[in-house]
Amino acid sequence: MNITSKVNNLDGLKRSLSVTVDKDEYINAFNKGLGKYKTSAKIDGFRAGKVPENIIIKNYKDRIHGDAMNLLIENSLTESLVENKLDTASPPKLSITQAGSFENDLVFTAEFEIYPLFSVKKIEDIEIEQPDVEINDSDISEVIKNIQKQHIKWEEKKNKSKAGDKIVLDYEGLIAGAAFENNKQDSFTFIIGDKINGDPATTGLFKAFYDNTTDEVVGSEKSFQYKMPSDFSDKNIAGKTIDYKIKIKQIYEGVLPELNEEFYKKFGVENSDHEIFKDNVSKYMKVELDQKMKSIKSAAINQILIDQNDFELPEHMLNTETQNISSQYEGMKQKIDDKIKLELDLIARKRVKLNLIYMKLTEVHKLVISEKDVYEFISKSDPATQEQLIQKTKEDKNYLNHIKNKLLEDAIIDLIASKCRINKIKKKFLEVVN
Hints:
This protein is α+β, with helices and mostly antiparallel strands. The protein has three domains: 3-113, Trigger factor ribosome-binding domain (Alpha-Beta Plaits, 2-Layer Sandwich); 153-255, Chitinase A, domain 3 (Roll); 263-433, Trigger factor, domain 2, CATH 1.10.3120. The protein contains twelve helices and eleven strands. The strands form three sheets. Strands 6, 7, 8, 9 and 10 form a five-stranded antiparallel β-sheet that branches. Strands 1-2-4-3 form a four-stranded antiparallel β-sheet. Strands 5-11 form a two-stranded parallel sheet. The mean pLDDT is 92.
């Protein structure tokens, strides 16, 4: 095409591309469009293909002009981007300075962001820690005990509570005698001494409940104070002392099920003894450990890739990812306050950065995942997973690309793991899988 273009650097990764398309290109495009209408236009009083040119121009001039403009802008922009070696990271925003005509050149401007230019730090210099785990009899016994706990039977008791008992109580919390949002709950239930994962405020409050319900009986009423950490997310109660009143309604003692044939049948192990059940548990533990080790390895490598590579991120990609994450969060009926927004923005930044690093590694190491690789992956899955994956690919044509992307991520992690330094750290099974 007979075009000229000029690149202007704007802030950060933003670029402006000014394009001029010679009027002769417009004339050719207009005439080609006119020719198509000559053969296809249907106007009363004329046979198809026999409509005079002046009648077609009178009826369809604006359409022909619009089609010619769209075609010229699309083709000239693509050619200009290639010629100037620009890889767009956002949809171009177009501004037409001068429309094309038989007398005038087409002049327009496109604004967009480009992908950052960077090189990934040498993957041979990456060093990660990897747990070194050997599953032994004590690990298997501990897992079996946890399985028993999951099937515990609760029996109501009247004597004093102890660690491991289930407590049902009503509570109310006041700050300087005043109520606050979600300050009370009926039939609040927990197990004394249960390990709670969460922020310091949550874990600390549970511990206070544990301490104040141990060695108590049904009907006991107690009061205690708990000071919320100053950095707690809810600013209305952060740093304030809450006066709690509790009343224990019920106490349950847990009875572990016996390890017998009836118990083993619940897990699909027919006609088995303890050794057969133990062997089945061991096999499951190995599968779980393999999955966890893979997850730990991926997380460690990804974090180092993020930490060691610094470059500017396209705002469009960041905004899109932030919107996606926020929509998912709101879909779980969660409220987004200022603190949560900062956390979601940080997650979006990490995802975009990692995605760009993956793109660069894929390009540099010429990694390719074919449809054959996808179907081979599906065929190696267990029968239930196979059926599920096949069904999803039938329902959603894009699901094959989802699997491709997952396999590509695995290929990148495997590539780095094969070249980086791995320090083995001795750990127990439950330290790793928990």
